[in-house]
Amino acid sequence: MPLQTKILKNNPINITKVIQLLNENNLVALPTETVYGLAGNAYSDSAIKKIYSVKKRPFSNPLIIHFKDIKSALNSIILNERAELLAQKFWPGPLTLVAKIKNKLISKIACSKMKTVAVRVPSHNLFNKILNQLDFPLAAPSANLYGKITPTSANDVKDELNGKILAILDGGDSEIGLESTVIDISGSNTSVLRTGSIGNVKLKTLLLTNQRDNKNFPISPGMSKCHYQPHTPLRINAKVAYKGEALLAFGRLPKNFKGPKLSLSKEKCLIETAKNLYKMLRILDKQKSKSIAVQKIPSTGLGLAINERLIKASHKIKNG
Ligand code: TXA
Ligand code: MG
To answer: Which atom of ligand 1 approaches the CA of 116 most closely?
Structure first.
């Protein structure tokens, strides 16, 4: 029999329920400032296996481990100057560091048996409240099925994982709407594995980063070409939307287009666009249009991270 997935409101009884579920190595979808995560005990192989199974994610793609404070996150990795610098500057917040593992309690399955681990200290009150009542950190990938659109509200998690998990803790809409910036500091070179709301310019002022060339093989296991995908094909950098299509506009909505249409930001604000991106893709995906035409978004600042997602969301696998 499928599970009943409940959306739990933020109140003391429900927080206790969430803590109990996590202590019993069950999964709960939790809000973070970036997107919703599918959280489980990072020290428990059984909880971690459930995460992979619910998401249908290959075991070769490791998870991010979330800590309650900077100290416990840094205590779990082999330290270097860059780790300390970035942690002091950006934690708690939307930054994930990939470093060599020190904490032997972290499930090896969560790290895909690699020598490195991805760690982050989120800056969401509710998520941190939960972490503070647990004796273990939480592994939490985005709460979507593997390769699909990331959820940014409790209802969107339900849309994605209904019947597969017991509970979703409602923390309202995600403030940022895009996943954290992932930086690899495990070797002598520092590289950005995934762009996010902490932009490359900000990072470059702190340390020299270089985007790795991943043409031939994915250096980060999550760097596949297809991700964040709606069921409806996506057409990006569209100048116009055609009959039968849905339109995801950047700026004011054209009056002459009669099909389904939404604007990411009428004032062309990139922060608002990031926040609306996944939510609006999910709404337009339900219109059963022949494709979704997305207007061009400038590749500056946050636009870089937005376009990185849109390119992957529109990528089609050749030969099946
Ligand atoms: O904002 C976020 O980061 C959200 C919230 C819930 O914290 N989480 C998230 O997790 O986006 P996920 O699993 O969807 O993405 C994690 C990315 C994947 O691309 C994964 O391959 C990469 O981080 N990653 C994890 N561990 C790694 C490692 N040891 N080396 C390289 N990449 C790693
Ligand atoms: Mg994800």
So the answer is: 29
pTM of the predicted structure, to 2 decimals: 0.94
* Rounded-to-integer distance, Cα 282 and Cα 28, Å: 21
Q: Please give the pLDDT value at position 215.
A: 43
How far, in Å, from the CA of 255 to the mean position of ligand 1? 40
Q: What is the pLDDT of residue 209?
A: 52
Radius of gyration of the chain (CA): 19
Q: What is the DSSP letter of 161?
A: H
Contact 314, 296 (CB under 8 A): no
**Distance from the alpha carbon of residue 47 to the mean position of ligand 1, in angstroms:** 17
Summarize pLDDT for 42-81 with one digit per residue, the tens: 999 999 999 999 999 999 999 999 999 999 999 999 999 9
Low-confidence ranges of the chain (pLDDT < 50): 213-218, 318-320
State which of 178, 182, 197 you would mutate to test the pocket of ligand 1, scoring each by most atoms of that ligand within 8 A of its C-beta: 182
**CA dist., res. 28 & res. 225, Å (int):** 28
Q: Where are the alpha helices (DSSP H) in the chain?
A: 12-23, 45-55, 70-75, 81-90, 125-132, 154-161, 200-206, 270-285, 302-314
